C-alpha cells in the first residue's frame, strides 16, 4: 500500500488533488481510497486529505498517520503547528512542497526528511492559468508522478474530477496542459514503505464522552479571538502603494474581518497578523492604492481588474 | 423618497470594531461583512443567540469574536432561545437584580437554512408574541456550514451540492427562492429590512432606525459566499453590488407592514450577476440556457413592475 497525505489551505484544492490521485490509481487498476479532513474552519484554514492505494484490499481507514509521500500545497503550512504537516513522517518519507524556494532554503530553518522536492506550482498556475488558487490538477499530477502512475489515467482522473466540479471544458483543457508539464517536471521516487525512524510521533486521541454539565464549553474572555492569528491563511497580502490612497475609507468599510484601520491621516493600516488575504480591499480600492503581493516568496504583484 | 437621517457619509461609520478578527469564517465572507457593519450600530451590550451554522464558528471554543455575550442554539430554536433570554432579563430587571441601565439587546443570528426552513415555526411564534428582539438572517442561499446543500433560500437555477445539474433538471435548482420577507410581513412586526453590505450606509441607517421600535426587528442580509457561490473572495462586494443593481436583491424596509424600497436600481440584465458566479456557470457553458436566464429576468421584471404600480 502507498499512503499519500496532502496538506493545503481550504480553497487551494488539496482535497481535489487527493481525489485525482485516488481516481488515477483506481483507473490504473489499483484499489484506492481518498478522503479529506477539515475542522469547522473555512477557506484559507489548514486542511488535509488522504489517498491510499495498493494491490491488496485496504482495511485501514481514516487519517494517514505514517505517510509515504506528503504533498504540501502551501509552504507556510510547514511552520503552522496546527497543520501538523510533518506528523508521522519518517526519514525516508518523500516531501513535496509547492514553493519557489529550494529544498536547502527550506531546510535552513526546518528539520525535514531526506527527500524533499519543491516546485513553484502557484507560480506556474499564475503564469499559465491566470488563476490564483485552484492548483488541484497540478498537485494531483505531481503526486501521481511521484508514486509512479502513468499519464493517461491521470489525464482521465483530472478530467473526471474537474467535470464533477462543473469546471468548464476549455478550463479543464488548460489545466490538463499545465498539469502535464508539472507531471513531467518531477521523477518517480523509489518509495520505501513502512519501518524506519519516526520524525515526530502521531498523536491520535480516542474521543471521550463528557456529560453536558461538564462538557459544555464556556468562554468568559470577551473578544479573545484576536489571540488566534489568521494571517497565515494568505497567499497574497494587500500592500499600500505610497501616495496613491485618497483616504476614502472604502477598504476599511468593506473588510469583512475588520482588520483595516484608518490612521490619523486617513490612510489604511492593515493588521497582517489577522488579514486572511481575501483581496476585497484590493478589488474595491478606487485608486488602486492597494495591490496584492505574493506572500513570503515575494515578487509578483497584481491589481484587480 | 426614502432618506437616510443618521448615516449620510461613509466617514460616519463608527471606527470601533465589535466583531473581532481571528474568526474561522472564510476569507471574503459576505455574511461576516454584514454582521460587522450591523454590530457597529448594535454595540457590545448584546446577547447573540446563534442557530447552528457558519456563524457559530464566531465563538468556537475556546475563542469568541464578540465583546458581548453569545449563546448557541439548535438550528430550529434560536428565536425560542431569544425568548428565554429576554424573559430572564425582564424578570431580573423586575426583581431589581439587574439595573435597567445594564439591559442588553437580544439578537438572533441565523443562516437561511435555519431561517427559511428549520426555525420558521419558532420565528413565527416569536413574531406572534411580539418578542422584543432583533433577528439577523445572513442569507448565503444554502446550508453553508455543511457544504452548500439546497435550502428554500436557494434561487432558481443555482447549483448546490444537493441540486446539481441533472437530466431532469439541467438548470440545477428547480424551485424558486422562498419569499421570507413576505412571510415575516404577514405577521406585521414593527420593522423588517433587507440589507446588502455593499450598501453600507443603507445598512447602518436601517439598524439605527430599527432601534426606535419595540418588538421584532427583522433583518435579511445578502451574504455573498465565495465558497458556496464559487467566485474569487475578493469579488464579494462586486457580487453583492450586482445582486442589487440587477434588481434581484431589492433593498427595502417594512414599518408596521408598509413597504418602502430604499434604493431603486437601474436594473442591469441579470446575466451580469449570474456570470460572475460558478454556481450559475452551467447556464452559460457549454451551452447557453436561454430559457432559464429569461425566466430569471422575467421574474425580476415582474417584481419591479409591481413595485412601480404600487408606487403610482
Ligand atoms: C436539526 C439539525 N440538522 C442538521 C444540523 C447540521 N447542521 C449544522 S450547521 C448546518 C447548516 C446550516 O445552514 P444555514 O442555516 O443556512 O447556515 P449557514 O451554514 O449557511 O451559515 C447544518 C445542516 C443541525 N445542527 N441540526
Ligand atoms: S461558507 Fe460562505 S457563509 Fe459560510 S463562512 Fe464561508 S463564506 Fe461565509
N-to-C SSE string of chain A, H for helix and E for strand: EHEEEEHEHHHHHEHEEHEE
**Rounded mean pLDDT score of chain B:** 96
- In round numbers, the mean pLDDT of chain A is 87
Share of residues in strands of chain B: 5-15%
Key structural traits:
heterodimer; A: alpha/beta; Pyruvate-ferredoxin Oxidoreductase, domain 3; Alpha-Beta Plaits; 18% strand; globular; B: 312 residues; alpha/beta; Rossmann fold; eight-stranded mixed β-sheet; 33% helix; binds thiamine diphosphate; binds iron/sulfur cluster
What does this structure look like?
The complex is a heterodimer of chains A (305) and B (312). Chain A is of the alpha/beta class and 305 residues long. Chain A has 2 domains: 2-199, Pyruvate-ferredoxin oxidoreductase, PFOR, domain III (Pyruvate-ferredoxin Oxidoreductase, domain 3), CATH 3.40.920; 229-303, Alpha-Beta Plaits. Chain A contains 9 helices and 11 strands. In chain A, the strands form 3 sheets. In chain A, strands 2-3-1-4-5-6 form a 6-stranded mixed sheet, covered by helices on one side. In chain A, strand 2 (31-37) and strand 3 (46-54) form a beta hairpin. The longest helix of chain A has 17 residues, at 169-185. Chain A is globular and about 65 Å long. Chain B is an alpha/beta fold. Chain B has a single domain (10-311), classed as 3-Layer(aba) Sandwich (Rossmann fold). Helices cover 33% and strands 14% of the residues of chain B. Chain B is built from 10 helices and 8 strands. Chain B has helices at 30-42, 78-94, 112-118, 120-128, 180-185, 200-210, 226-229, 236-245, 271-275, 290-311; strands at 46-51, 69-73, 105-111, 133-139, 191-195, 216-222, 252-255, 258-261. Chain B has an 8-stranded mixed sheet with strand order 2-1-3-4-6-5-7-8, sandwiched between helices. In chain B, strand 7 (252-255) and strand 8 form a beta hairpin. In chain B, helix 1 packs across helix 6 and helix 3 crosses helix 4. The two termini of chain B are 13 Å apart. Chains A and B meet through helix 8 and helix 9 of A and helix 1 and helix 8 of B. Bound molecules: thiamine diphosphate and iron/sulfur cluster. Iron/sulfur cluster binds next to helix 7 of chain B. Residues 52-55, 74-76, 111-114, 118, 140, 143-146, 151 of chain B line the site of thiamine diphosphate.
